[in-house]
């Protein structure tokens, strides 16, 4: 970086290490809040407005940090999540933090503590230098890995006030920038049958598992690669004992779609599942929880601006194809909160 924004590589590596060894699986509220504490401590002493929003539903807090030195109008919104999918103890058993040449390893480092720390360092450098050209808001969320149930409204509210939204999720395929993502739906399906002894009264039973087996095949058959639609039954449980016709069975379903129309269509198909056996009830809950992140003209202009900046510091930033994973970027990119401007930012 320039002399205006000096970089201490050793300090940055130590900062990333501290974040990674502070493990933060989503549903461990205390652990994720330790990460929130750490982020707060890393911006202490700077002229920034900090708002910590108490967690809900047993989840950790959201953290909002604002650089409003140039006022409070529409500006840049940065989004990072600090929860991970790794259980406590991972860093000490199987995936320790380590450096191998120019690569770092550790639980949650790629998704997404490494990118979040680097973005926060840039945010701090701009705050220290007082060089922001527009307001910059940084939101750290605690629940992205489970669909952002408590942070989505905050993200959408902040995005509506912003001119540009940047998300520090990892790059793809050797450094390509993500400018489009599939939408994600999540569903819970339960079948309720009639229990009976599997030997003496087999004919009186109605198997919830047998019904669910047929539902699983029907759901998986909805996958349409040409349309970019995938359906996956990822979890299944049911039954009580080998000699009992099972009364209950439950599955969790994942849906991925390229566009809003497909989201509405396949959401309706899954919610409308009907029993094959009229003696078994089928209950379905859920729906689309992340809208598709489709590449708009505004997003393309913003990417090309980033590409020009990258070229100026010596590398060719390429764009990735639409990725299948959802993120907190899906909501700001949705039709409900379209970016207000397609002019490249003056940062």
Question: How would you sum up this structure, described in words?
Answer:
The chain is α+β, with helices and mostly antiparallel strands. The protein has two domains: 9-179 and 294-337, Aminopeptidase; 183-290, 2-Layer Sandwich (Alpha-Beta Plaits), CATH 3.30.70. The chain is built from eight helices and eleven strands. The strands form three sheets. Strands 1-2-6-3-7 form a five-stranded mixed β-sheet, sandwiched between helices. It has a four-stranded antiparallel β-sheet with strand order 9-10-8-11, with helices on one face. A hairpin with an 8-residue loop joins strand 1 and strand 2. The two termini are 15 Å apart.
Q: Main attributes?
A:
Alpha-Beta Plaits; 347 residues; alpha+beta; 2 domains; 5-stranded mixed β-sheet; Aminopeptidase
Helix tally? 8
Instruction: Indicate the CATH class of the largest domain.
Output: Alpha Beta
pLDDT below 50 for ≥5 consecutive residues: which ranges? Answer: 335-347
User: Could you say which structural class the secondary elements and strand pairing correspond to?
Assistant: alpha+beta
Report the β-strand fraction as a percent range.
15-25%
- Global geometry: elongated
Mean pLDDT: 91
Topology:
Blueprint (H helix, E strand, L loop, with lengths): L8 H13 L7 H14 L6 E5 L8 E6 L8 E6 L16 E3 L2 E3 L3 H21 L6 E6 L10 H10 L2 E4 L15 E10 L15 H13 L9 E9 L9 E10 L2 H12 L9 E10 L6 H16 L17 H4 L14
Parallel strand pairs: 3-6, 3-7
Antiparallel strand pairs: 1-2, 2-6, 4-5, 8-10, 8-11, 9-10
């Amino acid at each position: 970086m320039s002399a205006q924004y000096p970089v201490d590589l050793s300090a940055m590596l130590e900062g990333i290490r501290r974040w990674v060894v502070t493990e933060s699986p989503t549903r461990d509220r205390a652990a994720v809040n330790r990460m929130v504490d750490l982020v707060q401590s890393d911006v202490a002493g700077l002229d920034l407005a900090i708002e910590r929003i108490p967690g809900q539903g047993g989840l950790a807090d959201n953290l909002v940090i604002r650089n409003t030195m140039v006022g409070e109008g529409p500006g840049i919104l940065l989004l990072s999540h600090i929860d991970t999918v790794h259980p406590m103890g991972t860093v000490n058993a199987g995936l320790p933090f380590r450096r191998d040449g120019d690569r770092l390893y550790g639980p949650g480092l790629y998704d997404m503590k490494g990118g979040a720390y680097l973005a926060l360092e840039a945010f701090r450098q701009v705050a220290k230098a007082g060089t922001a050209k527009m307001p910059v808001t940084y939101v750290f969320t605690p629940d992205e890995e489970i669909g952002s149930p408590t942070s989505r409204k905050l993200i959408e509210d902040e995005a509506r006030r912003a001119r540009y939204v940047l998300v520090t999720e990892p790059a793809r395929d050797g450094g390509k920038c993500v400018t489009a993502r599939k939408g994600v739906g999540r569903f819970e399906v339960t079948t309720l049958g009639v229990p009976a002894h599997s030997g003496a009264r087999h004919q009186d039973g109605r198997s919830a598992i047998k019904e669910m087996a047929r539902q699983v095949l029907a759901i998986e058959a909805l996958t349409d690669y040409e349309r970019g639609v995938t359906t996956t039954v990822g979890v299944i449980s049911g039954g009580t004992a080998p000699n009992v016709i099972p009364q209950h069975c439950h599955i969790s379903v994942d849906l991925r779609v390229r566009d809003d129309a497909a989201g509405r269509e396949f959401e309706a198909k899954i919610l409308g599942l009907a029993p094959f056996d009229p003696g078994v009830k089928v209950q379905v809950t859920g729906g689309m929880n992340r809208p598709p992140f489709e590449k708009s003209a505004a997003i393309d202009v913003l990417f090309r601006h980033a590409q020009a900046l990258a070229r100026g510091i010596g590398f060719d930033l390429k764009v990735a194809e639409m990725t299948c994973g959802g993120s907190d970027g899906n909501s700001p990119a949705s039709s409900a909160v379209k970016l207000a401007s397609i002019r490249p930012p003056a940062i």
